[in-house]
Structure formats: C-alpha cells, structure tokens
C-alpha cells in the first residue's frame, strides 16, 4: 500500500493509518477479499473544492475525547456504491437497491470507526467511543486531511476523504510517539492480531443498518467450544469405558477455540457464569487462519 504524507502531524498520520487499515479489514470481513489501496495527504484547498462542489457524502463522527473531537469521512457515489455492492454480492445479493448499497457502506464505515476508537482507547489510556454521528461536511480550511483510493485495476474508485478536527489531533499529540508507533504496527499487522474486544466482527449499529443485512443477521449458526483434540487407533476407541481418560493436545494454559459452523473464528479463556461455562474472547483469528482451520 503506497503512502504519501511526509511532513504532516504525526498524530493525524497515526490516526489515518489506523482508521484506513480498519476500513480495509472491515471490507475484507464483508467481501472476503482485501482491496489494494493507496493513501496520501492532500492540499486543503483541493479538499474545500471537493466538498463545496457536493462531490461526496460526508459522515461526521464525534468521538468522546472532547466536545470538538471529530472525524469526517467523505465518499462520492461511485466509491460507496462499489463498496456496498461488493459486500452484498459476497452475501449472495446481486439485486440490491441504491439505498441498500449506501446502508451497507455505512455499516462497513461503522465497523471501521469502532475499530479506530479501540485503538484510540489504547493510545490515550481511557475508554473512547464513537457516538451520535450524522451526515455533515467538515468546516472549510481543515488542516490535516487524507485520502484513500481503493485500487481495482483500470477502474479505481474515486478517493475517500478523511479529515480530523484540530482538538482531536491535539489530544493525540500529547501522547508519546512510541504509543503511536506501537498502534500503527498493530493496525498494519492485519486482522490476525486483533486483540480482546476487537469489533471487526461486531455489526452493532451506530449508523442506519441495511434491511438486507438485518435478514442475514437473523440466520442462526451452530457455535461450539473445543478444549482440544486427540487421535486414537480404532482398537483404543473400542477399549474406552466409563472412567477412561483421553489426553488432549492442549495444555490447561492454552486458550480454547470457538467454532462457528465448523470454522474456528476466535480463541479465549474458559469462565464460569452463575454455574454455567462460558468463554471470554481473547483473539479473533484472521481470514487465512479460518480457512486453514475448517473442520
């Protein structure tokens, strides 16, 4: 992924890298493919001309780091339409409406913002949430703004614009640079390094949810937890009686696997809740690992 934004504020650059990586992961989770992308810093005057001309639908997302801490994300119709269309096509829906594609794009946008706020929480050392978003363009003259272009061969989508408010960047600038470097490494490592509570798989809405996706979310899937496995010769299986012990391939300190529809999607630790067993999720596995662990 190319990046061209030398000289801009480190905190703004870190936040853009974090969010844009979350966007790519969210698209991959919904479509099954990770798009190639090009990221860059652009001139303020060019941004002003873009949003004043009505070329993009802007989403303004406040975050709980002060009354004026905000993120603006703008996408023209070819960009959000293509993202929404690909996500619904991956779900087997090829005849969605314009409203379906826009709602699906907003769903993916919601996931990326949720992931970004998790990274903000780790950087600032206190819980950060994204609340009360709405469609609204950024103010004229915003300083740090970026673009990400999804590369699709000869039909690359128009850029998606990203703007951060000065108060938000100022809060992040007060944190040590080492924290930012650590978060960037985590973000660019991909979904295989998603930590506890990673929201990449969460479809909880902060934006308007697609009615088409609502139908899919009602589908029930079998969920089971694996404590370990063992391979035994048939003669040993026939010898099993009440009281026999079968040694598994996992130690008591290793996490258990959460299996959905015969595929390992997460790992965690066993807990007891009011006399019932439960699993506290510690890791969401990557798409590549999920394919390797299909049962």
Q: Mind sketching the topology for me?
A:
Blueprint: E1 2-4, H1 10-31, E2 36-41, H2 44-52, E3 57-62, E4 70-75, H3 77-90, H4 98-124, E5 134-135, E6 145-151, E7 160-164, H5 166-173, H6 177-188, H7 211-217, E8 223-226, H8 234-238, E9 256-260, E10 263-273, E11 276-284, H9 287-292
Parallel strand pairs: 1-2
Antiparallel strand pairs: 2-6, 3-4, 3-5, 4-7, 6-7, 8-9, 9-10, 10-11
Helix pairs in contact: 1-4, 1-5, 1-6, 3-4
Number of domains: 2
Question: How many DSSP E strands?
Answer: 11
**Order of strands in the sheet with most strands:** 1-2-6-7-4-3-5
Instruction: Please report which band the strand proportion falls in: under 5%, 5-15%, 15-25%, 25-35%, 35-45% or over 45%.
Output: 15-25%
**Low-pLDDT windows of residues:** 1-7, 177-209
- Reading the helices and strands in chain order gives EHEHEEHHEEEHHHEHEEEH
Q: Give average pLDDT, whole number.
A: 76
Distance between the termini: 33 Å
| Largest sheet composition | 7 strands, mixed
Short description:
With 295 residues, the protein is an alpha+beta fold. It has helices at 10-31, 44-52, 77-90, 98-124, 166-173, 177-188, 211-217, 234-238, 287-292; strands at residues 2-4, 36-41, 57-62, 70-75, 134-135, 145-151, 160-164, 223-226, 256-260, 263-273, 276-284.
